Amino acid sequence: MQTDSPSRVDVQGVLRLQDWGLMTATGPDSASFLNSQLTQDLLHLGPGQARLAGYCSPKGRLLATFWVWNAGADTLALACSADLLAPTLKRLSMFVLRAKCKLADASADQALFGLAGASVAAWWAAAGGDPAALPAPGQCARQGAAWLVLLPDAAACPRALLLQPAGDPCPALPALSAQDWAWLEVRSGIARITAVTVEQFVPQMVNLELTGGVNFQKGCYPGQEIVARSQYRGTLKRRMVRVRADAALQPGAELTHSADPGQPAGMVVLAAPAPSGAWEALVELKTALATTPGELAVGPVALQQAELPYALPADAAG
User: Fold this and answer.
1) pLDDT digits (tens, 9 = 90+) for 114-132
2) Which of 95, 114, 292, 311 is deepest in the core (most CB within 10 A)?
3) Is residue 160 part of a domain?
């Protein structure tokens, strides 16, 4: 049985994203180098485009997920969880070798904000942007020294990343709570890997290919053979679903199912309190248990399945 809260909630405002970090790749080989490392086709990431991407271990397990956009002048910007920025930057730097690409932590120089609801268009207009030319999800645009990156809507609410010099004042917009931004992340159905979920999932386990984060036509990258095998051979045995609960949930927590209580049924990927007062989460779950009668839980906290904003493949939809 699936339950849900109202499909649209009036969430808006701006929030400094303390749990996100920013990396830049600069140089004529930046796109080709990152294309050889990430799950996304970055050779054809044109000006004004932003894409979701994953970084995998040789075993095909996600080490990080990014929003990547073309910042011009042979520069790509990559936003990921702040707790993964340093280890991911160190690991990627090991493979640059002779490529003309310089990787750097830009978090000290650039401030990353989240915009939601009417505040997305409000910032764009205040920055001098043409209201008729507001970027669509998957697009980005520069206004002065700032970048606006449009993310997919969540619960019918526009979302964007705003990147501006760290010394500039916070945009004069209503304050957005960290809880509401995290809830919109859950509602988007898009996984963000954090330190507690590193190397836990092949991309398809968290629906990364369904949310545009995997390109199966591009060249090789670490773990590519395993990711491709998961896609084309057999039925995937785990998928990400959305759930609701009456108590707090934390990423990395294991799920159990009463039909098989001795084995972990899955893991919490992201979680946040909803405006309604309940908690919502994205969880990786064994597909065989998605429709099996019984109770799904995290410890003593019962979970109820809810809809995602996109359809799962028929063999995983339940």
Assistant:
1) 999 999 999 999 999 999 9
2) 114
3) yes
- Whether 301 is in a domain gets the answer no
What is the C-alpha to C-alpha distance for residues 149 and 201, in angstroms, rounded to an integer?
26
Range of the domain at 35: 13-188
Residue with token string 């697009």: 139
52 assigned to some structural domain: yes
User: CA angle at residue 1 from 274 to 252, to 5 degrees?
Assistant: 50
Q: Per the structure block, which two tokens stand in for 83? A: 């707790």
Q: The domain spanning residue 122 has which CATH number? A: 3.30.1360.120
In a domain, 304, yes or no: no
The pLDDT tens digits of the residues spanning 38-76 come to 999 999 999 999 999 999 999 999 999 999 999 988 999
Domain total of the chain: 1
